[in-house]
């Protein structure tokens, strides 16, 4: 039996949770608790390594497509293990150094390496047997990959985004279950490296959370290069004698491969925290319920990131961490005066697939469902000068504006550098710049790619 240890602040999770501990917390007695790899999802198994693989994939694709610019080249070899070493040779030390810094470099902070769960109001039991109490607690416990029981219980080896990037060798054929972000990004990466990719998705299109124009076009492009099975899911999975796996779909189709990636969404980790012991409510989707100040339903307990957010994105978790950091320094349950509000109005996202995709604001359907009088315009990359330079025949920028006011309601870009191209539209929406002011109130560098945005806005204004 150990004595309870008391802290001013306890943080569960070292992803975005770790970023709370800036110098304003120097000298405070803080417990930082992590059951997995220090640094959480983004740095270790999420955004950062995936985009390092995506960049390598784009280099491979540039070589493959060079002939269209009059340059002949051939892709000699993809050195998979060297790619892994480049990525994780840079990333793994960041986690190790981060853990060491929190263990020894920040006086007042104690790093606990253990699973935590609540056993009372702001009282945590660690898997090590230690008991921690705290004046304030932050739940920053993230989410984990969902593995449907028909796969988990099949005895067939499978991968999730947690381990697919460290496969010992490239498979010849990869079967991906799911049709969302992770499926689209890894389909791009592996196919660019020469792997034959099959995708099995439940919906009638890929990336169906997107505006229909983008999802339809992306699905059509994906069908040209990958073996795509839509409106279907897994009935059974089994090992094939001599190696490999075979997936039988609900319509009887059989899809064979050498490796299986499961990418059917991520579930918030609140279900592993015994939240009822501390009075923190979760909603029907398993997300910790928070208000606009990131306060949970239990006094003194905040939450941030994937554990509570419908948008499981790192920039959202980072924003919420900044809100929590400020509100922790106030008496947040005494009065809301002076508390910082989270701003979830214009959350952009990007899928780093081929072509890249980025979006912000409403889809056309959402704007119509909201009864808004709208004008939309789809501007092809191929009709602006930089699109000619790139020989682009796929890229589009779609904008949705409100007639009369010119308010920009939504923007959807698919094509080269989409996450960069969309950024001025995010800024315009955030700061209330209307379409006409944005299009004509500034210079657009000629002949740069953002002219696709300028022309999309002008097109929508004419409709
Ligand atoms: C493959 C992949 C690619 C992605 N790419 C992007 C991208 O390009 N852009 C983007 O914006 N987002 C991306 N995301 C999403 C992004 O990674 C997450 O939204 C973000 O990292 C969530 O941060 P978090 O702090 O909420 O959780 P995490 O970073 O997951 O941190 C939670 C931590 O809590 C720990 N923990 C959980 N429960 C307990 C417990 N009971 N006790 C102790 N410790 C616990 C976990 O081990 C984990 O380390 C990607 C995700 C994946 C999986
Ligand atoms: N670039 C980025 O920002 C990025 C990249 C990767 C992941 N993420 C985050 O991680 C989250 C999880 O990614 P994800 O791709 O796992 O989830 P997702 O929610 O994006 O997509 C899941 C997909 O799987 C399908 N599906 C669900 N159950 C299925 C089943 N049994 N059989 C076949 N298909 C099924 C769904 O219809 C959906 O298309 C994303 O929602 C996103 O928030 C972000």
Automatic annotation (TrEMBL):
Protein name: Mycothione reductase
Keywords: Disulfide bond, FAD, Flavoprotein, NAD, NADP, Nucleotide-binding, Oxidoreductase, Redox-active center
Cofactor binding comment, as recorded: Binds 1 FAD per subunit.
Disulphide-bonded residues: 42-47
One annotated GO molecular function: mycothione reductase [NAD(P)H] activity
Catalytic residues of the enzyme: 446
Cofactor(s) the protein requires to work: FAD
Residues annotated to bind NAD(+): 178-185, 265
Domain FAD/NAD(P)-binding: 8-316
Keyword Acetylation: no
Organism: Antrihabitans stalactiti
InterPro entries: FAD/NAD-bd_sf, FAD/NAD-binding_dom, FAD/NAD-linked_Rdtase_dimer_sf, Mycothione_reductase, Pyr_nuc-diS_OxRdtase, Pyr_nucl-diS_OxRdtase_dimer, Pyr_OxRdtase_I_AS
EC number: 1.8.1.15
Pyridine nucleotide-disulphide oxidoreductase dimerisation domain mapped to chain residues: 347-456
UniProt: FAD binding residues: 51, 306
Pfam families documented for this protein: Pyr_redox_2 (PF07992), Pyr_redox_dim (PF02852)
Record SUPFAM superfamilies: FAD/NAD(P)-binding domain (SSF51905), FAD/NAD-linked reductases, dimerisation (C-terminal) domain (SSF55424)
Family from the record: Belongs to the class-I pyridine nucleotide-disulfide oxidoreductase family.
Class in the EC hierarchy, top level: oxidoreductase
Gene: mtr
């Amino acid at each position: 039996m150990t004595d309870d240890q008391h802290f001013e602040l306890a943080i569960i999770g070292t992803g975005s949770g770790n970023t709370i501990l800036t110098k304003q917390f120097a000298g405070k007695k803080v417990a930082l608790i992590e059951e997995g790899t220090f640094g959480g999802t983004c740095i270790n198994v999420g955004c950062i390594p995936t985009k390092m693989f995506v960049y390598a994939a784009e280099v491979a694709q540039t070589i493959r497509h060079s002939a269209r610019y009059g340059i002949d080249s051939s892709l000699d070899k993809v050195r998979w293990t060297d790619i892994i070493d480049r990525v994780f040779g840079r990333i793994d030390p960041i986690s190790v150094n981060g853990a060491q810094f929190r263990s020894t470099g920040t006086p007042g902070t104690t790093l606990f390496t253990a699973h935590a769960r609540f056993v009372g109001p702001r009282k945590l039991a660690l898997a090590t047997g230690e008991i921690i109490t705290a004046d304030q607690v932050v739940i920053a416990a993230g989410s984990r990959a969902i593995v449907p029981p028909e796969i988990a219980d099949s005895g067939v080896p499978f991968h999730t985004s947690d381990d697919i990037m460290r496969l010992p060798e490239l498979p010849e054929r990869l079967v991906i279950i799911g049709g969302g972000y992770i499926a689209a990004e890894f389909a791009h990466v592996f196919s660019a490296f020469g792997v034959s990719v099959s995708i099995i998705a439940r919906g009638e299109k890929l990336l169906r959370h997107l505006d229909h124009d983008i999802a339809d076009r992306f699905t059509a492009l994906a069908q040209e290069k990958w073996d795509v099975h839509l409106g279907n899911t897994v009935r059974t999975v089994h090992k094939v004698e001599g190696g490999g796996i075979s997936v039988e779909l609900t319509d009887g189709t059989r899809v064979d491969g050498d490796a299986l990636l499961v990418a059917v969404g991520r579930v918030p980790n609140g279900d592993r925290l015994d939240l009822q012991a501390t009075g923190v409510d979760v909603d029907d989707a398993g997300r910790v319920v928070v208000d606009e100040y990131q306060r949970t339903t239990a006094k003194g307990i905040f939450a941030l990131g994937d554990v509570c957010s419908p948008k499981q994105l790192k920039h959202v978790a980072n924003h919420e961490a900044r809100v929590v950091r400020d509100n922790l320094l106030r008496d947040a349950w005494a009065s809301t005066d002076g508390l910082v509000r989270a701003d979830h109005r214009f959350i952009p996202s990007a899928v780093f697939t081929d072509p890249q995709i980025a979006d912000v604001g409403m889809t056309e359907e959402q704007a119509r469902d909201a009864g808004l009088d709208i004008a939309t315009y789809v501007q092809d990359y191929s009709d602006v000068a930089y699109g000619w330079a790139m020989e682009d025949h796929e890229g589009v920028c779609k904008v949705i504006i409100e007639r009369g006011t010119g308010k920009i309601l939504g923007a959807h870009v698919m094509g080269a550098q989409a996450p960069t191209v969309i950024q001025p539209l995010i800024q315009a929406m955030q700061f209330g710049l209307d379409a006409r002011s944005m299009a004509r109130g500034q210079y657009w560098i000629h002949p740069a790619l953002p002219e696709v945005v300028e022309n999309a806005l002008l097109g929508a204004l004419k409709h």
